[in-house]
Amino acid sequence: MEATYKTFKPSWKSFYKELFCVLLLIVLGGLAQYFKAGSSWLKWMWIAIAVIDVLCLLYIVIKRSTMYLQLRDDPADPANQEVAFITCNPLKPFSSDFRKSVEIGLANVMHIEVGQTMMQTVLGVGDIIITSSGTAGEEIRAKDIPSPAAVRDEIQVHARKYTMQA
Prior knowledge:
Elements: E1 4-8, H1 16-35, H2 40-65, E2 68-73, E3 81-88, E4 99-105, E5 109-115, H3 118-123, E6 125-132, E7 140-146, H4 148-165
Antiparallel strand pairs: 1-2, 2-3, 3-4, 5-6, 6-7
Helix pairs in contact: 1-2
């Protein structure tokens, strides 16, 4: 059997919430400046809000692009049979918390759940929650993964292969 390595990244379809909030604040600031054209403090406040919005949007884009769920299944290498969730924090580039990784061995996967809001259902994305043996709560929560039911089914197929052997 050959090794399986699949990476699942958050969908950009679910980016609508963050983008809508940033655009709304910029538009509201621009409208306030338009109706109170004589106030210089209002102009500077609008510029400050726009800069903060752009920085927040940049942070969200960087964070989302460095987050992924990875399925590693190499039957020849028992150390490489796991589900891993990797995320980076762009605000801590020189800290040991910059890159965090949570790995669960496929034989230890107990429960995989798919959670979806109404808007996520419309967009075809969802959250994947994975619990393992030995933990009381969720261990991995991967947000906004496209086709979450298919991803859950694929992880379950690989996990069953190792739980039946044990």
